[in-house]
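Archive entry. Fields below.
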Amino acid sequence: MARYNAKTVEEKWQKIWAEGRVFEARPDQKGPKYYVLEMFPYPSGRIHMGHVRNYTLGDVVARYKRAKGFNVLHPMGWDAFGLPAENAAFKNKVHPAKWTHENISVMRGQLKRMGFAFDWSREFATCDPEYYGQQQALFLDFFEAGLAYKKEAWVNWDPVEHTVLANEQVINGCGWRSGVPVERRKLAHWFFKITDFSEQLLNGLDKLDRWPAKVRLMQENWIGRSEGARVNFSLKGRDDHLEIFTTRPDTLFGASFCALSADHPLSEQLARENPDLAAFLKECRKLGTSAEAIEKAEKIGFDTNLKALSPVGDGRELPVYVANFVLMEYGTGAIFGCPGHDQRDLEFARKYNLPVPPVVLPEGEDAKTFEIGDEAYTGPGTMINSGFLNGLKDNEAVSKIIAFLEKEGAGKREITYRLRDWGVSRQRYWGCPIPFIHCPSCGSVPVPREDLPIRLPEDVEFDKPGNPLDHHPTWKHVTCPKCKGQAVRETDTLDTFVDSAWYFARFTAPAAKLPVDKTQANYWLPVDQYIGGIEHAILHLLYARFFTRVLKKLRLLDVDEPFTGLFTQGMVTHRTYRDEDGSWVLPANLKQLEDGSFVRADNGKKVKEGRYEKMSKSKNNVVDPSDIIDQYGADTARWFVISDSPPERDLLWTEAGIEGAWRFTRKVWRLVNRVRENLDRAPAKAGEKLESAEEDILRLTHKTIDGVSKDIEIFHFNKAVARIYEFVNGLTAAPATLQRSHGFREGVFTLVKMIGPMMPHLAEEAWQQLGHKTLLANEPWPEVDKHYLAVETITIAVQVMGKLRDTLETAPGTDQAELEKMALQSDKVQRAINGKDIKKVIVVPDKIVNIVIE
RNA sequence: GCCCCCGUGGCGGAAUUGGUAGACGCGCCAGACUCAAAAUCUGGUGGCCUUCGGGCCGUGUCUGUUCGAGUCAGACCGGGGGCACCA
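PREDICTED_STRUCTURE:
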């Protein structure tokens, strides 16, 4: 028997699959369609274990579904625009295109060595002009549909990256990549009108029952729907009024002040005549972006001396403040404060000595004595001190007050969302150019479609900060498509989240003349199973859902949701190690001493073990997939990443674990060879003993098929692996005579088929060694023969007072009286009863007998 | 602060609707093969006690519901994640 040589076997089958174009998807192939997609990678340089895990999970699904008779689409491409390419250009004087394409080439090679069943014929990169040209066409479609617009807006400016960040790219007031505090600037900026779809995006979540509940909840919170009312407050001595959004219009009688955002137009207007207020606004803006402010969060205000008139007809005048805790971006940028029933308003009122009238009385309290102390009362109750609302429940009061406001013309019912429009302009070179031209006489003019794609210029320098497109001597200077006068191109490029918001649709027809080929998209979409990291739970997934709805509106396809199934996998972690100097030590650079402790292999310094953390260069705890493939082969790596941990949890990478997977690889190979060596010998003669042993093998085989299939369907890959281990143990333990039996051969054939999705090269080689001429990749999944699932005996647990005392072997379906009799005959049970009176016997057929005594 | 998830052997993790806790793997121990090692195979492996029959304890802690709780309920402790002045 030849020792299993993973390298030659894996290369051999990868070549055969590629030459036979085995995994290329065509819509005319038979079977229901199944689109499985893993989040495409950013070409950062080399693949990491996170990629290996992600793409192995997807590949198991793709190969399994293929075997189950589905017409599977499983494509791969590159999310190729983005900042790191420009950083590399700046640092190493390499052109972003060159850097990106070299990385793609390396990573493609690494992925191919993993043996994933991708349809490589559909590969594209988002930096291909064919792709971003279509994206520019889509941008024009958005514009024509009123879904892309330009406005002056406060934007988050990253002073290090010299670019605008989306709200969601600002984390604790700092840029998500640069980590430095962002500044607020007013800039002309392109937006996509995602807010038009707030309601749809929220309601659509209900149908996504194959998404993790956690992700749906995160999206729900992100969209942030609130029901309430828009209320007008007249301003004493002025013609204008304040518009305020509130979710608690029932507490209007409890209002004791109004507060404006520092960015509210009225605040700015007042500040022009009031230098103190101007200084306060400046202070607020500074606070708004510093990390410190978030920690302290002291509520401060500035009294404008304006008085707002209570809109509920009680004639009260409320002071108007500008307050640091009011956001311009949410609601109307102005609030009324009801300190009795809102904690933040209460803190504010206490600070500025404002009244705190209670208007909602909790159950069991007396209206005469009820007072608000240090905590606002936010629960339900009965209205008091509220004029015509008195005596109503708070929710009844909401309807009544809204009806009142509507009648008075002082307000109306309103629903608001936290979700903001998506700012997509980036001051960057390495992104999709926005197809607009700015003409001094015609304004912003769309680029005619026949001029697409607008290609990025190749001759660019990265010697100074800012956007190279802006510095380019010729690229931006063009004639206006309308008046033919001198004009300039838009030099901003699109946020890279735009690139990934529709790539899954492009995969269905990557060479289509339109952005999306409707026939192909309607055939393949939606993606049946999408797999990726939880870090994209909000942004990417929400943008893709938005794009899909727009594509439908543009009549480019007919589906609402892009991904009907979503799976989010956990991180790949590894133990961390530090030496005496505190520097992180690479796992590959460890040497274990006799006593079990570690030292550095290079300089012998003592090393301390740390905790398991996500593999990262900074912690120096990475294991390079290529090293693992070199040492053990792709199949072993694939097997290990799906074997121990459930895929949604973090995977602990261990050297012992990968060794164990490698041992299993060889064990399967030995088992296959045992059958192969006996193939040309006649099957063993069926004696009585052999017959029953053979039956046992067949029963185990079919039980395993049943279990493994079910486990794969629900992503319990680690359990499928455990079942396969048990199966292999069962087969290995079979006596030599049995190994020539038909049943045993059947068992090993089945084993080979079942490891196909997980260790495809080994399985394919074994299939051939076992005398088959077909490709295993084209073989159907084994069928369960229900006959073998029937059990002859089952084990019944017998408890006395809930404690296990004995077990009984019996046929399934044995009746209760019989079970009780059998249980009482047991010596062990009698000993436990110890002569006491039996109060009750509980019998659950096929499960348990529990005897209750005095 | 609010919301969500998770706590099971030395480790990763199993355990349909409440019904034999610890499947399977790793590690460890013992044995077989070998001059030896590697590889492989076999057996054992939650803790404590044991007259070797077995007994007691045990799923973060404490209460409760139940004939019966890892599973359900309440309170708490610990770990992880998300959101965060959202009116």
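CURATOR_NOTE: Chain A is about 35% helix and 20% strand.
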